Amino acid sequence: MQEVNWIALTIFVLLFGFITWLGFAAARWRKGDLDLLHEWGLGGRRFGTVITWFLVGGDVYTAYTFIAIPALAFGQGAVAFFAVPYTIIIYPLMFLIFRRLWNVCSKHGYITAGDFVKGRFDNRWLALAVTITGIVATMPYIALQLVGLQVVIGALGISGTGLMADLPLFIAFVILAAFTYSSGLRAPASIAIVKDILIYITAIAAVIVIPYELGGFGKIFSSVPAQKLLLAVPGPNTTGSYSGYATLALGSALALFLYPHSLTGILSASSGKVIRRNAAMLPGYTFMLGLLALFGFFVIASGVDKLPEYAAGFKHFGNNFAVPALLLHSFPAWFAGVAFAAIGIGALVPAAIMSIAAANLYTRNIHREFINKNPTDKQESQVAKLTSLIVKVGALIFILFVPTQYAVQLQLLGGIWIIQTLPSVMLGAYTRWFNSWALLAGWAVGTFAGTWMAIAVKLTNTYPLHVGDHTFPGYSAVYSVILNLLVAVVLTPVFNAMAANKNRVDQTVAADYQA
Amino acid sequence: MNNTGKKRAGWSWWYLLFVIQFAVALWPPLYNRAEPYLFGIPFFYWFQLLWVIVSAVFTAIVYFAVEE
Question: Cα–Cα distance between A161 and A157 in angstroms, integer?
Fold first, then answer.
């Protein structure tokens, strides 16, 4: 590993110190009683348009995104740009579906998807399935954020042996855990603002400075090998990379807002109007993400992967080291420190929101439903705070003791699992036509089939679906959720005929979904 | 026909803009080409970035149309 970069490290530590202070100070911001779960876990549902923009931005565009998407472009080329159509199509979904969910959740005091499903379908087992899926899918996602942090810490030149090697990650983790515990969702909301300012500064500077240093975009793209520059044109009898690209974008988009942390970000908004406004404003981030994906090509053009001083980093972190190496190579040390702090803080924000979301789920839909049915407000928020700690310790242990590759693969499976809650949550926002047991059966079949598909292709993204002599390679999440829906549709009349849904009451009425 | 301009949350014809937004973004044959270049950037990349902006404008149009 290279020498410790003292200037970059100093800037990094200073900025981390600042956000630590901010995280604790956030408890007093728009002050509320943090012994109430919706105050701790949803910031009192008081965030306006601007804060929601930063918070949802922090959810969607995480440190791991900033590291992994350019790394994918560097390694595999054009396919990495699927992140752009993916983040184009999430916003109409947000505009149409999630404003309805916001309305009904705020009217009934729902904090999680599990709360909504329980109220809508009156089936605690379906709610439990949604809850467990949410928690299990979120865990590896938190772990991946810590991977992003690990990469920038490594790039600062900090290395050691044994426990010393993990000390910086451990310190960052303690900071994260402490301010989340004390301030709840207000902490990541305030830190997200700092994170985004730093990320924007970094992205804009890099997009101007690096192409200039490398002799312009024309030169950069001419150094990209032809097979990486565009998607491979499909051969006969297959939709090839085209269906892979499109389903990857579609499946990722559908999965995104089903993740508990996205819903937490959305439900903390102060009105449905804030959600709709944000749907029009959030594409600002998508544009930046597209620019960041191009960093992968900057890496190819600059040839930093072949420089001896970064060889150890690439060896240790693989292609995930591409962006840090590029930043170290192209910028003075102090600016590299700013950029690394942006990525590092960009890891803490989503990790905090994710752990809060998982804690809300456990507290509301497992603890309150099955263990202590009548907690006081204080007990309820206490359980949530403790759960958020446990979730984070779990993610830390995972990252320290399990190879990174497993976290990546589990996160891939997590996307397949979380999309199986689509019929209950997204379609549930529109209709109660489905029988709740049919939804549960669809969920089980989809989860099983999706997992099987992913394992059949050795935990890569696209499954080659054969129909006759045609092949349709596509994202397993999309295929499995279609199967899930078919099962739910077919079984609904069957279970209704068996009267399996008798006496189940819908707490919500049509008007609850309107503003 | 009733006045559909009333503030009600059913279908609005403005949502067709979302359909266009989806269809273009999810149809790679449309943009999977290098020519024409723009400032040295292949079509595949600049078109999708441009589509981000177009989509944001569409969403803003729908917002103002439906909100009225």
Answer: 13
Domain contains A475: no
Question: Which residues make Cβ contacts (< 8 Å) with residue A307, sequence separation at least 6?
Answer: A325, A329
CB spacing of A221 vs B42 below 8 angstroms: yes
Q: What is the pLDDT of residues A407-452, one digit of tens each?
A: 778 888 899 999 999 999 999 999 889 999 999 999 999 999 999 9
Q: What's the token pair of residue A295?
A: 């960093």
- At A78-112, the pLDDT tens digits run 988 988 998 888 888 888 888 889 999 989 989 99
Whether chain A has a CB inside 8 Å of the CB on B30: the answer is: no
| Interchain CB contacts (distance < 8 Å): A and B | 108
**What's the total number of domains in chain A?**
1
Q: What is the CATH number of the domain that holds A213?
A: 1.20.1730.10
Go through A224-245 and write b for each residue having 16 or more CB atoms within 10 A of its CB, e for each that does not.
beeebbbbeebeeebbbbbbbb
On whether any CB of chain B is under 8 Å from the CB of A472, the answer is no
- In chain B, residues with a C-beta closer than 8 Å to the C-beta of A245 are 28
Tens-place pLDDT, residues A370-391: 888 888 888 888 889 898 888 8
Distance set, CA A343 to CA A16, A323, A337, A485 (Å):
11, 10, 10, 38
Q: Which residue of B has its CA nearest to A245?
A: B28
Helix axes A124-155, A308-317, angle to 10 degrees: 160
Pick the residue of A88, A91, A298 with the most B CBs within 10 A to test the interface with B by mutation: A88
ipTM of the complex: 0.86
Q: Is A512 on the interface with B (CB under 8 A)?
A: no
Which whole number is the average pLDDT over B33-59?
90
Percentage of residues of chain A with pLDDT beyond 90: 23
Which residues of A fall within a CB distance of 8 Å from B41? Answer: 217, 221
- Enclosing domain of residue A223: 6-234+250-404
In a domain, A487, yes or no: no
Q: Do A91 and B59 touch (CB under 8 A)?
A: yes
CA–CA gap between residue A165 and residue A301 (Å, rounded): 32
pLDDT in tens, A470-507: 888 889 999 999 999 999 999 999 988 887 666 678 88
- State the angle between helix axes of A49-60 and A260-267 in degrees (0 to 180), rounded to the nearest 10: 170
Q: Is the distance from CB of A260 to CB of A98 less than 8 angstroms?
A: no
Label each residue of A389-400 as H, E or C.
HHHHHHHHHHHH
pLDDT tens-digit readout, A256-283: 889 999 988 888 998 888 888 888 888 8
> Exposure of A275 by Cβ count < 10 A (0-12 exposed, 13-18 middle, 19+ buried)?
buried
Nearest to A276 among B21, B25, B63 (CB): B63
The verdict on A285 touching B (C-beta cutoff 8 Å) is: no
Residue A515 lies in a domain: no
Asked if the structure places residue A317 within a domain, the reply is yes
